Structures are given as structure tokens and as C-alpha cells.
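Repro:
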Amino acid sequence: MNNIFKELSSYKIIPVIIIDDEKNSLPLANALIEGGLPVAEITFRTKAAGEAIRNIAKNFPNMLLGAGTVLTIDQVKFAVDAGSKFIVSPGLNPKVVEFCIQNNITITPGVATPTEIERALEFDLEVLKFFPAEALGGLNYLKAISAPFPKLKFIPTGGIDEKNILNYLQFSKVIACGGSWMVKSELITNKKFEEIKNLTLRALNIVKQINK
């Protein structure tokens, strides 16, 4: 695994963030850092995402910052220019994946089937996003479809929270999980950054139970 995946593996949780106002980006990042989790995936589901990435990258350069819901090569370019260190996409777009590989940009595309996993193998990818995890059948389904691919690792995302994250993380092929329960949009919009910090602290206390 490359250094970014090693770092994500050490944190085990990737906060998946939808942010509507870039002005909230800095107090949000500070809350995550104070909560002990200096990592974030800012999703391109809002117009504020790009500036939020830029603000955080400028003011918290040591934060492991990624861009999510990246669908096009132009979005990859924009995200990296803004300061994103890794790219996450909901599916496997060959053009986007190929561009990232050619430009040494870490990407984790989403997969849901063995066929999509085989397509990812053609690009020599090491880590894939399993999405939407719970809707697809959860951990049992992931174990079933990943069985023929012993070298691959996964980052399950979608429907994961403090109630089920331990189950996923105890599976040896999972390096980290994406989740939004500690960074829900309403908490960010209502500027409940102290609550975000406390939820982050609680989430980290849960994953500390992992002994791989």
C-alpha cells in the first residue's frame, strides 16, 4: 500500500462530509483534529466543496484531505489543485481512474460486484471503495465477493456508523471505513462543532477496540 492508504489504515475512520457553506470548513476541520481524527473526505455534492478543500488545505496542511463523489477528470484536476491528497469516486470510471494513475494521484473507486472488482484489477489498484456497503448486503456480501481476490483491500462506505463499524474493521480485508455519523450535514450547518468533536472522540474510542 502507498503512504496515503497506510495513513488511512492507521486512522480506520474517514469522515465523509457534505458541506453547504465553505465558511464552516475551518471550524469543522479543527473539530476533527481536536477529536483526534485529522482526516476528511469532502464530497463534491455541493458547490462549496472545492473552496472547503482549498480552505482546509491552506490552513491545516498536515490534514489528510480527500475529495469524494468525484465523477470527472475535471473534478480530479480541481480537487488536486485545491489541495486534495486522494480521490474517491462512487463507481469505477475507467477514464478517471486512468488519469489518476497516469498522474500519480491516489484514487479509490467504488465497486459493488465481482465484475467491477475485476475491472479495477486491470488498473493494478490495491484498495477499493465498497459502496453502498449496507444497502448491498453489508459485511457478509463483502466477504463473499472479495473471497476470490485475496490481495485486495477495501474501504466500505454507506450506512456505516458506530453500531456496525467494528464488525467491518475486524475483517482483515478492510483497512478503514467511510462514515458521516460524526459529521452530519445538520451538525455542520448548525455549527455544532463541539458535538462533532465529541462524536469523533467517541468514534475513535470504539475503533481502539480493534486488535489486528
